[in-house]
Specification:
Chain lengths: 325, 375
């Protein structure tokens, strides 16, 4: 079992980092927030071209997956760069569709997910009540008991994270029966990649904060010389350093009976660590971090939004405890 | 590196089998008491006879060349079995790694076997009244003498020194040199003429540590570790072990977290979700520490200053885990027992081996790359 990434996986992460750095995703996120989707959709196609979405699609349907370790590697980078769009929802849907018993007409969407031509969203109430970016998704699904249904997007809801465009949905036509088990697996994968995204964005906020305190001077010296500031950042690192192995460990337990429990442990830890990093980033930046215009504040907002997306920490702790006790 | 967990499973089975047959049915008296110290020493002898006291050491010194994975597995089984605390841990975890790096073959052959068997129990003597977090300000001296050195001055907060046989630590050998320079790392007998030890009751009164006074205590040259004057470098090689995985292995926290979940099942009030969440967090954090341990031993590079990240994590986890247990016990939480003993022990964690404030400074400077600063 590999508890660290192998050379190929590391290279994959580095390739995505480079691709995303060049794409200037903070600008893409601001466009996305304003309803200008084209740059974000172009990035979607690039990422699909790099193989990100195929990782969730079974080989039989034109994908390469599911490959959970590669998925969390990719989502760590999506998180670090604050990429907008329903990536976790699309991955969860791909896993769900790939697990439907006996095949379903909806499985025909899988090749289009893998190659990036389909943008998909998903609502899984109660933990995932709204469909993210339903206005750009070609397919929006929801699950009602055992039934997988088309979801009819309704009213848009405003998120703290302006790049998260949420839509209430009502269940529409039935797409597949006996879908609850597949939906549960889709949910677990969605929560896992969301956890990876959180660790990535927490890491980025720590990097940005370190840069800031090295250069920002007060009282004649960099504020990074003040112990109160240094200890905040050290604490942020400790949290993130122990969230990452949980995310990786959960990816390794895909396909075992412990997967749901391990995903929950990872999501709790990633959400708390990323949110703590966001609070610390806000604090050490002072007022600039509290502005809309400062790009890292997009990540500060996303950290809070994702903290409770794909299951709140309380819900995931409850799941851990019901698996244990 | 690929870690094949199944490769350690037959070793796991052997260890589990042995422990099941040998772990005392009733807990030994606290190792921080004279009676308990003797009982724990006898237990070390028993472990050693089965070649389980120092599994990762080479065979010639009493070990069995266990891989890091096998060592982690040993620790998991050891603590899961509820086996006694390790009275020799300061020697095994803090002195032995230093000897493996800086010791002479003669020192290894002379010092390690009796350490492995519990015949000689070691105490770490680093802190002084004026040198705690600021270790480099230490003032106890080693003065050149015929064939060796004479130690003078005072060490304090020396864990296990109330009952241990020998001690080790840095002394100032060049009175002209300051701070990190001019220190020499020495081993010395605690029962030698000129050594006075005064046990100190820790917060629950048990004599878990001691003050040591040195009055012309002779130490032969053969008990210097590394070169004279290089004591700081030798000492710093210990801190990585102290803060890293070896001093507090994941197995210890996994076992405690499992017992906490058990306690929740027995005593928990299902409607108290706040307490339930703390139990969940303790379990999650223990699992994180285990996975991080696998990650660490899979790496080929030295973790260096990242060991400070470890130390902050495990010491805070230990306190939180035991606080949660005491809260679960409610009004019985203050009563003497294993949870309270563990709690008292855990409270020292954020202080010893370099306070967590010092660790955060190390993390800030050497892991995050922040500018050097006054404290």
């Amino acid at each position: 079992m590999r508890f660290v990434l192998d050379a190929e996986q590391r290279l994959f992460g580095e390739t995505l980092d480079k691709l995303l750095t060049e794409a200037a995703p903070f600008g893409v996120a601001r466009d996305w927030a304003a309803g200008r989707h084209e740059p974000g959709l172009a990035l979607w196609r690039s990422l699909a071209g790099a193989g990100v979405l195929a990782l969730a699609v079974p080989e039989s349907a034109g994908g390469a997956g599911p490959l959970p370790v590669e998925l969390v590697t990719a989502f760590h980078e999506l998180g670090r760069h604050g990429v907008p769009g329903p990536y976790a929802e699309t991955v969860a849907t791909a896993v769900l569709l790939g697990r439907l018993p006996g095949g379903s007409p909806a499985s025909a969407w899988l090749p289009a997910i893998a190659d990036g031509t389909a943008v998909v969203s998903l609502a899984l109430p109660p933990a995932v009540p709204y469909a993210l970016d339903a206005d750009v998704a070609g397919l929006v699904l929801t699950v009602d008991g055992q039934e997988l249904r088309a979801a009819v997007p309704g009213e848009a809801r405003t998120s703290l994270d302006p790049a998260r465009r949420l839509f209430a949905v009502t269940p529409g036509e039935v797409i597949a029966e006996e879908a609850a088990a597949a939906a549960a697996e889709g949910y677990d994968m969605g929560a896992l990649v969301c956890a990876a995204q959180l660790v990535g964005l927490g890491r980025r906020l720590l990097e940005v904060s370190v840069d800031h305190v090295r250069t920002r001077r007060q009282f004649g010296r960099p504020i990074g010389e003040f112990q109160a500031v240094r200890h905040h950042l050290a604490n942020a690192l400790v949290g993130l350093e122990y969230a990452r192995p949980l995310v990786h460990g959960a990816a390794l337990s895909y396909g075992t009976p412990d997967f749901a429990r391990d995903v929950s442990a990872a999501k709790v830890s990633a959400a708390e660590a990323a949110y703590a990093a966001a609070r610390i980033a806000l604090q050490v930046h002072g007022a600039i971090g509290y502005t809309d215009e400062y790009d890292p504040s997009l990540l500060i907002r996303k950290a809070r939004a994702l903290h409770s997306a794909w299951g709140s920490p309380a819900a995931h702790r409850a799941r851990v405890m019901s698996a244990l006790a | 590196m690929d870690l094949d967990l199944s490769a350690a499973e037959s070793f796991r089975a052997e260890v589990r089998h042995w422990l099941r047959a040998h772990v005392p049915a009733t807990p030994l008296p606290s190792l921080e008491t004279g009676e308990g110290f003797a009982a724990h020493r006898a237990w070390e002898r028993e472990l050693h006879a089965a070649r389980l006291s120092v599994v990762s050491w080479p065979e010639e010194y009493g070990g069995r060349n266990a891989t890091p994975l096998e060592w982690l597995v040993f620790e998991e089984e050891y603590y899961a079995a509820g086996a006694p605390g390790r009275v020799g841990q300061n020697g095994v975890n803090l002195l032995a790694p230093t000897l493996f790096r800086y010791g002479t073959p003669e020192q290894l052959a002379r010092v390690l076997p009796p350490m492995a068997s519990g015949e000689v129990i070691w105490a770490q003597a680093w802190s002084e009244p004026g040198a705690g977090s600021d270790l480099a300000s230490l003032r106890a001296t080693a003065t050149r003498a015929d064939g060796g050195w004479l130690l003078n001055g005072q060490k304090t907060w020396s864990s296990r020194a109330a009952f241990a046989d020998r001690g080790f630590g840095p002394f100032r050998s060049d009175p002209e040199a300051e701070r990190h320079r001019g220190l020499t790392y020495l081993m010395f007998p605690l029962d030698a003429p000129g050594v006075t030890r005064r046990p100190i009751g820790r917060i629950d009164g048990k004599p878990a540590f001691a003050e040591l006074f040195f009055d012309d205590v002779f130490v032969p040259d053969r008990d210097v570790i590394g070169d004279p004057g290089e004591g700081w470098r030798v000492a710093m090689s210990t801190t990585g072990n102290e803060r890293g995985l070896t001093l507090r292995s994941p197995g210890r926290f996994l076992a405690a977290a499992d017992r906490l979940v058990e306690l929740w099942r027995e005593r928990g009030d299902a409607s108290d979700t706040a307490l339930r969440d703390r139990v969940a967090d303790a379990w999650i954090r223990a699992r994180a520490y285990r996975l991080k341990g696998f990650e660490t031993i899979s790496r080929t590079d030295d973790i260096g200053a990242e060991s400070s990240v470890n130390k902050v994590f495990w010491s805070e986890l230990d306190v939180a885990l035991h606080e949660t247990a005491l809260d679960l016990l409610g009004p019985d939480g203050e009563l003497a027992g294993e949870w309270l003993e563990g709690y008292v022990f855990s409270l020292a964690g954020p202080i010893y081996a370099g306070t967590n404030e010092i660790q955060r400074d190390v993390i800030a400077e050497r892991v995050l790359g922040l500018p050097r600063a006054g404290r």
